[in-house]
């Protein structure tokens, strides 16, 4: 069984971090499969016990996770996690632009891939991994994470109009299009494209499409709506446009995709609306 707990970060960190998620499994000979579908935002994952396999769709390649992994935003259903044995991990789920804001690392360098954490973030994150491993409860670990990330806040500049424009694209309920957002915020399309790659790791159009896909998933899990109603509520042009996005981002039609996603999967924690500005 895969058990999951989550904790909110310090309020000062909410513009940058969605949540902390701790997962444990004691599966014996059983095996769980978790699809990795399209999502916004970077994840920072700490492994404390066991490990899982990352198998890529369309190939025989297998990736082994690192003790500390920085996992970029995903633009399609690239891989699946094979979970077996005893597992203990802690995941920091960042807001769509939060990782770049805190660390200044262009998100485009991380997209659709996993990067070894020590190589990217240095000794401090390795010390944090050791500290977290010596703690037991999620509340204790959350406080340690808060202390680490609050130190990153010092010296951060205020958000610029481009980032505000990109944030509007993560809100499907507004019905705003890329050109309309750029005009409303007074920024050029080329500038918006360039900064979107830097901040979010993808183009503005893809950013908006994945935000809408995540919104549709959340509506289906939280409300008693049929898919036609969800397509309308999520601002899809029609039902077929939603099906197209689900096939691209989840690898399946909507109903089949939802059947593969379980409450313990990390994508559930990436469905929540992002906090303002980050």
Automatic annotation (TrEMBL):
Coiled-coil ranges from the UniProt annotation: none
Domain HTH araC/xylS-type stretches: 160-260
Keyword annotations from UniProtKB, A to Z: DNA-binding, Transcription, Transcription regulation
InterPro entries: AraC_XylS_family_regulators (IPR050204), DUF6597 (IPR046532), HTH_AraC (IPR018060)
Lineage of producing organism: Bacteria, Pseudomonadati, Acidobacteriota, Terriglobia, Terriglobales
GO molecular function: DNA-binding transcription factor activity; sequence-specific DNA binding
Protein name in the entry: AraC-like DNA-binding protein
Organism: Granulicella aggregans
Transmembrane feature ranges: none
């Amino acid at each position: 069984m895969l058990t999951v707990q989550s904790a909110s970060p310090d309020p000062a960190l909410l513009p940058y971090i969605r949540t902390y998620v701790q997962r444990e499994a004691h599966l014996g000979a059983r095996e769980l499969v978790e699809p990795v579908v399209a999502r916004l935002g970077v994840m920072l994952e700490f492994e404390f016990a066991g490990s899982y396999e990352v198998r890529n769709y369309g190939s025989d390649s297998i990736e082994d996770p690192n003790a500390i992994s920085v996992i970029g935003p995903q633009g399609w259903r690239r891989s699946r996690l094979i979970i077996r044995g005893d597992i203990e991990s802690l995941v920091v789920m960042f807001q769509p632009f939060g990782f770049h804001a805190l660390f200044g690392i262009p998100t485009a360098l991380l997209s659709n891939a996993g990067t070894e954490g020590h190589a990217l973030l240095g000794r401090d994150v390795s010390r944090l991994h050791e500290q977290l491993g010596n703690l037991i409860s999620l509340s204790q670990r959350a406080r340690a994470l808060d202390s680490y990330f609050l130190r990153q806040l010092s010296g951060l500049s205020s958000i610029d109009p481009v980032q505000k424009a990109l944030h509007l694209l993560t809100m499907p309920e507004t019905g705003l299009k890329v050109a309309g957002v750029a005009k409303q915020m007074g920024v050029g399309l080329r500038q918006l494209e360039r900064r979107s790659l830097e901040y979010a790791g993808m183009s503005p159009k893809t950013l908006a499409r994945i935000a809408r896909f995540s919104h549709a998933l959340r509506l289906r899990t939280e409300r008693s709506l049929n898919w036609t109603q969800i397509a309308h509520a999520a601002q899809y042009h029609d039902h077929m446009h939603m099906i197209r996005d689900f096939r691209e981002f989840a690898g399946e039609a909507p109903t089949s995709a939802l059947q593969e996603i379980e409450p313990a999967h990390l994508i559930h924690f990436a469905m929540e609306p992002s906090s303002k500005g980050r």
